[in-house]
Write a sequence for this structure.
């Protein structure tokens, strides 16, 4: 029996060429799988047909937008996931979903190998292969661009030679990856980190400098899941799309950063993620109001670790799964409304209210409604500082450890 390879297919030049390339190199039948994670652009049916025209024996396309919103974007929001305090994991988030479907199709259609079109320099190869290792540990992986010399020039020559239906004129000078949660732009003139991004790079956001009048909106959350905008209930997919529109119109969520890739390279990346950045600002603030202090502090550590695991391709790892459980529990009280002001590239929280609020006006106020017993503070501060005072006296006693006197000059 001819062996079968399942290829992660995007519809672009590299993976279109990879269909015939893999067939020629291995003698296997190629099954193309493409997932719509909200990247926009071409119709799924057009992509499905192109894979067949390029020689795939089967071509599977799936609309995974709602699944992506609910099972990937929402957990990332609940984790306030910003890698290096900035990047909302756009590409890192979509790969595990794609991997899940690749593994399923491979098992359903009797393929023993999965193929992807990643290079050897990025994070996505790790996310594909480590994800597959976790879901289908016996499946083999091939990567023609990385492992069998399928360079861009050779890919173009191959496409011309075989008359493949690929429109070269539509090719961008950048490497772009985009989905519902945002958009990543790399390479080209951006490889010089001193070069400023140009307006042409962006498509999810308008120029913040020329944005119109500020926009104000209220986002409602239930247990850390966004459920409504301005009182209108929406499923996560529609809600994220709505926020991409409204925050995008104000130029919210543009990033320009040097990023630490898992494989050790520092790379210059430009992102735009209007909905992700606005939603995380809102969620973070509601969590600040509703999570007990120690839970909130520890949750920030967990969120950072969760984010790094996902960035590093470990979505399906045991630690990530355990942290998911923690984060669900930590989000249980994150219910309420956040008012956001979107204006000239910023998303600023201007109001918050919640039935689960721990904010106590009587304790916080400085006016006559004050219910806080200030007398209690005196003893608390005394005891809180006690270890420091004892250590300082000891240091003064031992001249070799006279930190206290050193500090005082
Ligand atoms: N550096 C980002 C990440 O690792 C974006 C990767 C984008 N991928 C691409 N093929 N352009 O998540």
């Amino acid at each position: 029996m001819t062996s079968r390879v399942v290829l992660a297919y995007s519809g672009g030049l590299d993976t279109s060429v990879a269909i015939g390339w893999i067939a020629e190199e291995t003698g296997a039948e190629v099954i193309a799988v493409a997932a719509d994670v909200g990247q926009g652009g071409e119709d799924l049916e057009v992509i499905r047909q192109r894979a067949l025209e390029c020689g795939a024996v089967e071509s599977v396309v799936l609309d995974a937008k709602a699944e992506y919103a609910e099972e990937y974007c929402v957990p990332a929001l609940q984790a306030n996931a910003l890698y290096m305090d900035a990047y909302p994991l756009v590409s890192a988030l979509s790969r595990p979903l794609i991997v899940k479907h690749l593994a399923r199709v491979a098992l359903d259609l009797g393929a023993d190998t999965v193929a992807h079109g990643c290079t050897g320099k990025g994070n996505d190869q790790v996310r594909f292969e480590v994800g597959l290792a976790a879901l289908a540990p016996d499946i083999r992986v091939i990567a023609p661009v990385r492992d069998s010399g399928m360079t861009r020039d050779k890919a173009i020559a191959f496409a011309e030679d075989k008359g493949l239906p690929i429109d070269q004129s539509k090719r961008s000078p950048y490497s772009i990856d985009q989905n519902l949660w945002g958009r990543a732009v790399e390479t080209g003139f951006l490889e010089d980190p001193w070069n400023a991004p140009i307006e042409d790079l962006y498509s999810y956001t308008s120029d913040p400098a020329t944005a119109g009048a500020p926009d104000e909106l209220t986002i409602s959350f239930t247990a850390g899941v966004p459920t409504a905008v301005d009182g209108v209930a929406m499923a996560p997919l529609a809600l994220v799309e709505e926020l991409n529109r409204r925050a995008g119109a104000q130029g919210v969520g543009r990033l320009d950063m040097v990023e630490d890739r898992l494989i050790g390279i520092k790379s210059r990346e430009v992102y735009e993620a209007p909905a992700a950045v606005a939603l995380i600002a809102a969620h973070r603030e509601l969590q600040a109001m509703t999570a007990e202090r120690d839970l909130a502090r520890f949750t920030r550590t967990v969120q950072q670790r969760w984010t790094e695991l996902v960035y590093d391709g470990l979505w399906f790892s045991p630690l990530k799964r355990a942290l998911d459980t923690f984060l669900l529990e930590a989000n249980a009280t994150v219910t309420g409304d956040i008012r956001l002001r979107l204006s000239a590239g910023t998303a600023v929280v201007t109001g918050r209210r919640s039935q689960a609020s721990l904010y106590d006006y009587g304790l916080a106020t400085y006016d006559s409604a004050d219910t806080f017993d200030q007398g209690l503070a005196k003893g608390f501060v005394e005891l809180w500082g006690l270890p420091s005072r004892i250590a300082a006296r000891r240091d003064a006693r031992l001249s070799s450890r006279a930190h206290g006197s050193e500090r005082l000059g």
Notes: The pocket of arginine is lined by residues 91-92, 123-124, 175, 177, 184, 186, 259, 269 (CB under 6 Å). The CA atoms of residues 184 and 271 lie 5 Å apart. The first strand starts at residue 4 and ends at 8.
